[in-house]
Design brief:
The structure is a single chain. The chain is of the alpha+beta class and 430 residues long. The protein is 66% helix and 13% strand. It has a 4-stranded antiparallel sheet with strand order 1-4-5-6, with no helix packed on it.
Length: 430
C-alpha cells in the first residue's frame, strides 16, 4: 500500500495539476509587489522635415532629420495603501491555494487506498467464486451419481445444475468488477496492479474519542483553513477597493536627447522630474459600488467558512461511525463463517444418511460463501474507513503515512519567484 501511495503522490496527474495551479497563484504576489517598483520605458523617434522660408530679404530651403531618444521613469509614492493590501491579499490567496493542494493530496491518497483495497477485495471474491464453481461442479457430479443409483430424484440434479449456472454467472460478474477495479487502480496509481500485498488499517494515530476527533478536524482540516484564508483575502479586497478613494502621489522622471530638433545641426538635452498628486472627488459612484460589493463578498466568505466547518464535522462523525461499524461487521462475519462451516459439515453428513436433501446442502454452501464474501468486504471497508477518517481529520498526507518519497514543498517555488524582478523562465527552466 505504501509504495502504491508513494507512486500516486509523485505521479498522479490530478495532484500535479493542482501543484501547477499553486505555482501560478504564487506569481500573483510578485505582480502585487510590482506596485512598489518603478516603471521604466525607453522611446525613440525619427522623422524627415522640409522647411521653406520666405522673407523680404529672400527665401531659404532647409531639409533636416529630427530624431531623439528618451527614458521615462514612473514611481508610485502613495496610492491609498493599495499596494500593501494587494500584497497581503495575494499572500492570503497563496495560503488558501496551498490548503486546496492539501485537500487534493488527501483526495488522491484516499482514492489510491480505495483503489488498492478494491483490487484486493475483488481478487479475493473472484477466487471464492471460482472455488465455489469447483465445489458445485463436484456436488453436481455426486448428485448425478446418486441419481443414477436411485438415491435422489431428477429434481435434486436440476437444483444442483441451477446453482452451478448461478455460480458461473456470479464469477463472471466478479471478474468484471475486478477489471473495473484494476482500471481504476491504473488511473489513480499510474501503473498496473501486480501482486498486491495485504494492507492494514491506519488507526494508531487516531484520536481516542469522537469529541477529540471533531476538535482536531476543526483546527487542522485544509478545507477549513482554505476557507479562513479566503475570508482574509476578501477582507483585504475591501481595503484595496477603498484605497481607490484616497489621494495618490507619484513621481515621474524623464531624460531625452534630440538631434536636429528645429533645424539642422541642432541638439537638445532635456531632463525633468515631476510630482503628481491626484485626489479623486467623484468617480460616478462606481468605486463606492465595488466597495459595497466587496463587503457582501466578505460576508459570503464568512458564511461559507461556517458551512465548511459544519461539513467537516459531519464528515468526521460519519467516518467515525463507519469505522466502528466495520469492526463490528468483521466480528459478526467471522462468527457467521464459523457457524456456517459447522452447519455445512453437519448437513453434508445428514445428507449422506438421507436426513437432508440436496437443496439443504446447496443452501448451506451458499450461506458459507455469503459469509466469506461479507468478511472480505468488511475487511476492505475497515481499511478504507480508517483512511477516510484520517482524511476527514485533515491528516491524510505523505508525512502522516510516512511514505518513502520526497515531500513536495510549495514554499520553495514561492520563495524563488516572490522577489524576482525580471526573467521569462520559470525556476525549473521552462
Amino acid at each position: 500500500m505504501e509504495s502504491a501511495l508513494a507512486r500516486a503522490y509523485n505521479a498522479n496527474p490530478q495532484l500535479n495539476a493542482q501543484r501547477a495551479a499553486v505555482r501560478a497563484v504564487d506569481e500573483n504576489v510578485n505582480q502585487a509587489l510590482s506596485g512598489y517598483r518603478p516603471k521604466i520605458a525607453a522611446s525613440a523617434d525619427a522623422g524627415y522635415t522640409v522647411q521653406d522660408l520666405t522673407t523680404p530679404q529672400g527665401s531659404a530651403n532647409e531639409k533636416f532629420f529630427p530624431r531623439g531618444v528618451g527614458v521615462q521613469l514612473n514611481q508610485t509614492v502613495f496610492n491609498g495603501f493599495r499596494t500593501g493590501n494587494s500584497v497581503r491579499r495575494a499572500d492570503a490567496n497563496v495560503l488558501a491555494a496551498r490548503e486546496q493542494l492539501r485537500s487534493t493530496e488527501q483526495s488522491v491518497l484516499l482514492d489510491g487506498a480505495t483503489a488498492y483495497m478494491d483490487v484486493l477485495r475483488d481478487t479475493a471474491i473472484l477466487n471464492l467464486r471460482n472455488n465455489n464453481i469447483d465445489v458445485l461442479d463436484e456436488q453436481l457430479r455426486q448428485t448425478r451419481d446418486r441419481f443414477n443409483v436411485g438415491e435422489v430424484t431428477r429434481t435434486d440434479v436440476a437444483q444442483a445444475e441451477a446453482r452451478l449456472a448461478a455460480a458461473r454467472s456470479d464469477a463472471s460478474s466478479a471478474a468484471g468488477n475486478l477489471k473495473a477495479s484494476l482500471s481504476r487502480y491504473r488511473q489513480v496509481i499510474g501503473v498496473e496492479a501486480r501482486q498486491l500485498a495485504p494492507a492494514k488499517p491506519i488507526e494508531a494515530n487516531l484520536p481516542r474519542t469522537l469529541d477529540a476527533a471533531v476538535a482536531l478536524s476543526q483546527s487542522a482540516h485544509p478545507s477549513i483553513q482554505s476557507a479562513l484564508h479566503s475570508v482574509d483575502a476578501a477582507a483585504l479586497l475591501v481595503k484595496v477597493t477603498e484605497g481607490e478613494l484616497a489621494p495618490s502621489l507619484s513621481v515621474q522622471g524623464t531624460v531625452t536627447h534630440r538631434w536636429e530638433y528645429q533645424s539642422s545641426r541642432s541638439e537638445l538635452n532635456t531632463a525633468s522630474v515631476t510630482g503628481t498628486l491626484s485626489v479623486p472627488i467623484y468617480e460616478g459612484g462606481e468605486v463606492y459600488s465595488r466597495v459595497r460589493q466587496a463587503k457582501e463578498t466578505l460576508g459570503q466568505r464568512r458564511i461559507e467558512a461556517d458551512q465548511v466547518r459544519d461539513s467537516v464535522r459531519q464528515s468526521v462523525v460519519s467516518a467515525w461511525a463507519a469505522l466502528d461499524s466495520t469492526k463490528e461487521r468483521i466480528t459478526a462475519s467471522q462468527a457467521q463463517i464459523q457457524a456456517a462451516e459447522v452447519a455445512l459439515n453437519g448437513v453434508r453428513e445428514e445428507a449422506k444418511v438421507g436426513q437432508r436433501t440436496t437443496l439443504d446442502v446447496l443452501n448451506a454452501q451458499q450461506e458459507l460463501l455469503t459469509a466469506r464474501v461479507s468478511l472480505i468486504t468488511a475487511q476492505r471497508d475497515r481499511v478504507v474507513a480508517s483512511y477516510n477518517l484520517q482524511s476527514a481529520l485533515g491528516r491524510l498526507s505523505s508525512n502522516q503515512l510516512r511514505l518513502a518519497t520526497q515531500e513536495y514543498k510549495p514554499s520553495v517555488h514561492y520563495e524563488q519567484v516572490r522577489d524576482k524582478w525580471i526573467g521569462l523562465r520559470n525556476p525549473d527552466g521552462r
